[in-house]
């Protein structure tokens, strides 16, 4: 078991090291999120399974606080309302659960952040298409080669791994970096 633990940790560390190549892209996305919020836009988060939980986590960091005192930031996880998710899935199909919410809530000047480890989640892709129709900026976090999400976003960060768990670990680190960088722009005091 210890050998397995060491091997997993080594793989995790190597993938995290490779994220250094995304430094400029992470900064650019953080600046875009900050500009969206500064101009009165909102950040919507979507994903499935563990990525759905990450969306809820990262939206909470923005609405509440990450590390610094500041006003709440307008971030909404579209993964959390079970009545909407189940009624839309029942009436329109599971692929529509996020697209329908973007149709109802999204407006030009907002930003849609989609998390998909494969980059091929049909409901994330459908939401990205609807967001494009409505004039939202579309960003993504994915893994492997990016999947179809790369084609459906304005800005996509690809974690260099095919292992779902390692991709999700990198996504939460990237998400925390985004929260930290954005929060710095809005902080009223340092801890």
Cα(first) to Cα(last) distance is 40 Å
Can you tell me the CATH class? Answer: Alpha Beta
Count of individual beta strands: 5
Order of strands, main sheet, comes to: 2-1-3-4-5
What CATH architecture do you see?
A: 3-Layer(aba) Sandwich
Description:
- This protein is α/β, with parallel strands linked by helices.
- It has one domain: Glucose-6-phosphate isomerase like protein, domain 1 (Rossmann fold, 3-Layer(aba) Sandwich).
- It is 54% helix and 13% strand.
- Helix 1 crosses helix 7, helix 4 crosses helix 5 and helix 5 runs parallel beside helix 6.
- The radius of gyration is 16 Å and the shape is globular.
- The mean pLDDT is 96.
SSE arrangement:
Layout: H1 2-18, H2 23-38, E1 43-46, H3 50-63, E2 75-77, H4 82-92, H5 97-105, E3 111-115, H6 122-134, E4 137-143, E5 155-159, H7 164-186
Parallel strand pairs: 1-2, 1-3, 3-4, 4-5
Helix pairs in contact: 1-7, 2-7, 3-7, 4-5, 5-6
